[in-house]
Amino acid sequence: MKSGEKASQASRQASQASRQASQASRQASQASKKPAATDRSRASRRASDRPRVALVVKRTSWDRFQKKPTDRLRRLIEKNDPTAANIRSAHDEHTATVHEVTAALEELGAEVVRIATRAFDAQGFSLVVTVGGDGTLLRASHSVDRVPVLAVNSAPSSSVGFFCGARAAEAKGVVAAALAGTLGSVRLCRMRVRLNGTVLSQRVLNDVLFCHASPAATSRYLLEYGTIVEEQKSSGLWMGPAAGSTAAQRSAGGSVLPLTSERLQLVVREPYTPRGERYRLQHLFVEPGERVLVRAKSHQMRLYLDGPDQLVRVGLGDRIELSLSREPLTLLGIAPERRWDWPIDKDAE
To answer: Which of 45, 49, 136, 177 is at a distance of 20 to 30 A from 195, taking alpha carbons?
Structure first.
């Protein structure tokens, strides 16, 4: 082989060796990057596996006083007046429970989203946890459709907490069971409310109060159920699902319904019957598929949904339709047979 050909062949071999070295370098570089990418992918999967929990926390009277002090309340607290005696102690008890629940959720690896508004979108959450009392649960429940809810009674020394599935000092174990899906639950029926054909709510859990704007004024209305239409005068009426039957419905003379009952109950407040007669529609049990229609005969009527916060103005001739909702609420930590010491009305089952 001539010297020129030898040089050319040597050059080609050197070039090929260079390309092979470059390819090996690229492969090594790619191999070194794969573990990092894999680690990021695993971290992403771990983050997506974390349950998202909406945390709804009550604002205490002491919180409101701190943000907007009033001279009257300050004087009452300084004098240890009995009307303001429990404000600070209830706040301290509540605050300790909030810390306990938050720490438990974080320790269990949950992604906690603190809800700062009354209304919120519960979609995308694995669980909704309310820390407060029954009022906190009721307000939050209007934002919840299918997501299960765990209510924690943050101040059991001063709060009833009928809907609460956990109390202070036991939150961690109950929250862990809720996230694991092993905590008992109950599906509570809710009520649908329409005004002049427009749906106001599908999620009334406790009750609605229909009455005059002034507690001292007579409520005048027409009540229709089935084939019966009756004109009434009273202090208004309560109506709600079984979950609310231990509260205002019972206090107004109604019955305690089984917690899982699909019946609704209507109770007229202080019916005005000067001749001693009894209204035919004074106390009703409304079956699934049935409705009650209320037509206002006064200008200044009001409708309250699950407490004082949701107020709807009702005028002369307005039509209110009340019926069973198709959106029950799943409440955790509550047994279906739960009740206080009041006997269940057998006729109401």
So the answer is: 136
